[in-house]
Design brief:
Domain Pyrroline-5-carboxylate reductase catalytic N-terminal (chains A, B): 4-92
Strand content of chain A: 15-25%
Shape of chain A: globular
Order of helices and strands of chain A: EHEHEEHEHEHEHEHE
Oligomer: homodimer
Number of domains of chain A: 1
Keywords (chains A, B): Oxidoreductase
Largest interface: A-B, 45 and 45 residues
CATH architecture of chain A: 3-Layer(aba) Sandwich
Radius of gyration of chain A: 16 Å
Pfam families (chains A, B): F420_oxidored (PF03807)
Protein name (chains A, B): NAD(P)-binding domain-containing protein
Largest sheet of chain A: 8 strands, mixed
Chain lengths: 206, 206
């Protein structure tokens, strides 16, 4: 099992935290508003609340933040994240959610890697999954990253949640996973699955 | 059932043509090498061979060509494609198949639309599916396009093949479907499904 820290106290932090506790992981919650972190840690049961900006207890640090917040918060934490595996779950959608906020071929995960401290590595994961699907289904989880060991750790954590990790490759693939987030939004808006679905793989063996 | 014309005589033309004939559609094949078109039409059984550059018999024209060939061939056909629904199935992968050949936020489908004649419309579809999977499985088929009527026609054709069409939105989403092609390649290269899989949706109703 894994030691994880959730930075963020919103719906995705709650959804991932709930699965993480159920999967037997050690969970810490950090929020800029300490009372929200305390509340979420209590609600998750068995989780602890850390102090904003301190060194996270978890080896895996999930930034459960809106896309705009991820890079600034990682920069703010700075050396407190040294040696950590940082998991970016965000979707930098534009205002109409039919394109990304960055026009260049980058991603929040790649930008996060630029500001992360030495020895930290960034993995993109979870961004193609609607929060309510994570609460009731067992969707596939795509992940991308440059550090094989970090990805293996995140994959093991994903498996502890009862979900299937799907490695798509290096961190530069995070750009195309953000695009897969747009594809998921597009499908939902065009009548697929009444929003109760996730992108995944179907196997045709033999 | 649909009237379709395949421009191209390669493996994808054969795979789609086989399913199209089995699905009760009227199928025409066109190739720059007439003997290859004749051969494929004969192999498909009940299909006809058209003449390269002539007005296609099909209402739906599938350019089953390598990505580099799609835009030039549509330009070459010119007004012969007036009023047709053109289906681009290509993946403009770079030499290492870990990125696209165009760095801007466009797609072969969008570039094809720029050279297509008046009254023609372009739909992106099929590009996330490995040919061998199309031959043995029932993968989901993502599609994108600006013309709702054209997309409805292509969706009906896809259903006639026993496959599920998944509308992701406007033609600009073709860029992200090409990205989904890269995600599919990335998954295959990282041990998912031994190449015998396709991207699709999993529903979690209720």
């Amino acid at each position: 099992m894994s030691n994880i820290t959730l930075i963020g106290t919103g719906n995705m932090a709650r959804a991932i935290g709930t699965l993480a506790v159920a999967g037997g992981n050690t969970v810490e919650v950090m929020g800029r508003d300490q009372s929200k972190a305390d509340d979420l840690a209590g609600a998750l049961g068995g989780a602890t609340a850390g102090k904003w900006g301190a060194v996270p207890a978890g080896d895996i640090v999930i930034t459960a933040l809106l896309a705009d917040g991820v890079v600034p918060v990682i920069a703010e934490y700075g050396d407190a994240l040294a040696g950590k595996v940082i998991v970016d779950i965000s979707n930098p959608f534009n205002a109409t959610a039919d394109g990304l906020t960055h026009s260049e071929e980058t991603s929040i995960a790649q930008e996060a890697a630029k500001v992360a401290p030495a020895g930290a590595s960034v993995v993109k994961a979870f961004n193609t999954i609607f929060r309510h699907v994570l609460e009731k289904g067992r969707p596939n989880v795509f992940l991308a990253g440059d550090d094989a060991q970090a990805k293996a750790g995140v994959a093991a954590f994903i498996e502890s949640l009862g979900l299937r990790p799907l490695d798509v490759g290096d961190l530069k693939m995070a750009h195309w996973l953000e695009g897969a987030g747009l594809v998921t939004m597009g499908l939902a808006r065009h009548g697929v699955g009444n929003w109760d679905f996730a992108l995944g793989v179907t196997e045709f063996p033999g």
